[in-house]
Amino acid sequence: MLLEFQVTFDLQRDVLPWVSALGSPVSDTVEKSSRTLRIINVERGGNVLYTWKGVEGFTSVGLYDPLAKTNEKLYSIDNEVNILSASVNSGKTLLVSRYLALVMEIKPINNVKVLKAVDCSIRVQFLSSLEDVYASCENHLLIVSEEKYIDKFHISIGEDDEKRAVINNISNIPKDRIAEDFLWVQWDVLQQMLFYIVPKHAGCILHCIQFYPDGNFEFVVSGLCLFYYRTPTVLQEFTYVVAFLHKGCSKTFKVSTTITDPKQLKVSFINIDSYVAVYLPDQALHLINTRFPELMCYHLFLAGDCAKIDGLHCDCPLQTVLKTHVIECCTGILFSVSVNQGELLKCLTESRLDCERLAVLHCFLLHLDLQPQKEAQLIDWICDNLSTCVTFDPIQEFIIASLHRYLSLETVYLDKLLPYTSVPYWSQAIDRISCTTDIIEMPILKIDIFKDFWEHFLSELEYMKQTQQRFLYSNHMQRRDWCRLIYDGNSKEKRTDAYQRNILENTKKTVPLNQEEEYLQKDLMGLMMVKLKDHLSQHLHCAAKNKVDKIVLDFVCKQLDLVCQILEVVWRKHILGPSILCLDRDGNSSEYFAFHVMCRITDAASQMSMPLPPGFQTLQLFLSVRCLPLGCLLQYIDAGVLTLTEAFVVKLLKELDDNETNEKLKCSIFLRLPENICEKIYNLWDHTTSNNVIAMKYMKKLLFRLKQREITRQSPTDRSPMYMNFLPLNYLIMRLSEVEDKGIFYI
């Protein structure tokens, strides 16, 4: 199944035998033990707190350590009470129960202090850290009451004469009022963050507080997504809402089901890192992308057999306690939840819809730590389905998403400046699913008097505005410069202005990446580095210049490495060897497949204005000669799919003899050679396999090109941006120059 549930804790397996061995059995029957043995909390480090009732009328609280796989009895109350929630400090010396909000010394069992003696629903939670620095000195406790207030208690721990841990200030425990009169509250145990909403006359205020192990806290700007489902108003329809409070919008999803009784809707929301799984047993399993929620193709919607989950013991709703951990409350089992990469890959291969394929690719490339074997299988699927994906290019998606994942860890906010998908928009409908986006009142973020808060808030707001200012491969200005650079690279004439010098300076940084003299690809790499550096320097204000330079260089290097990675998978699968470099043999089906993949890579690189790795174009030319008839080969060259390189032409001259077929091939290739290559191979004209007829034809073609360039001098595409056509003087100069040039050639 797509979601893999692994049991990490089971009350019946891990606790019941231990409790029975204490000499105080849980009950005389298994039915009663299932009613009294319950999980009451899961702490940040994974420790599980549970409670049970003994036959003597005692109520006990125990702790299970998942690392040591041991149980420990923390405290016993001499009568039967309902403990619905509890928390233990890091040093395991204090226990707070939800039963009358008692704080109890448990090492040794000594004092009991009533913090809140009101008969109301409360939640108790010790602030914790992953380190034990603050475990033995001072503890900080949050109490959230249904009377709509939140208090933080400061409990100091000391030692008595027998070196035992005791509460120093048990008679007067200081406390701070964190909030009051809130409408809604949510505690994030992993991040130690508290979210709550307070109503005001102008609108609701969203507060987000970050707590630290030393007891300090601060208001921060953070994102928050709320998932909830609505009571059905239409039979056989299930509706749930995702509210992105930090973005001021919500998405309402409506799903067609076969359930006619609303009471049978047992919905679970499961947090899986960047996704939230919406699970309706035997009906639907949706993976909602909370990181990139804009388009429907970023979410994965499964139904039928694909939506089933194995390993669960009942259909009761699951409760998320930690990220990627849920509790099956009716059985007392704690599961760790993960995405099964094998099943996800199977879903990709069996899918026939582009929306599902794109959602799975997005999940693989941006959110999962790919295993090497699964990554090779994913690339293999991409190569096999290049022609079946209609609405997007799998190669572009692979390169862009992989670059975003790889470089987002470089520095803060970089993920907002780089593109994460090749799909600009999505308008296609998805079967049985409807989605509407609504603008909601955006809660005002809490502003306090802390130092530099305004500066931090405005900085965050600025970067939120820049989320649309991503680096676009198909940007018009970059595309224009890209085409101009290709034109200049195929001729002897080079621009010498400051902009061109900047490109050449960046090109020098890519020299180690080029093992052969592919000057055009070096220049294209330099152009991409210039454009990306300008983009990052404009928006990434927090990074120094050397950091930006490193990011840009890593961007280009990883880009080239991804293309090589695709070729390596193709080469290993089809067992291609050095024989493909021989020009006097025909290619087989494996070589034709490799050539097809390389052509699709070339097309993707052209659309993205992206350079290709060193030797790529030369290797593509060798495969084209072996796989294509001469007419198709020349059409590919004329259309720009194939680019002639110096290494290919030299090998063509040295290897092929002078039979009729080879002479026709060489003649056709030479007539299409760029001028910058011609100047480097003139010394090979005297080679034994050369032909004077070919040389004569080529010289005739070269003179024709020279004549055409002189006639079309000062054409509109070559003029400076400052050129103004309506000036009479410019018009007169252009006309006189044309007459003069024509006169010279007609004499």
TrEMBL record:
GO terms for cellular component: trans-Golgi network. This is Gamma-secretase-activating protein C-terminal domain-containing protein. The lineage of its organism: Eukaryota, Metazoa, Chordata, Craniata, Vertebrata. GO terms for biological process: positive regulation of amyloid-beta formation. Residues 560-666 form the Gamma-secretase-activating protein C-terminal domain.
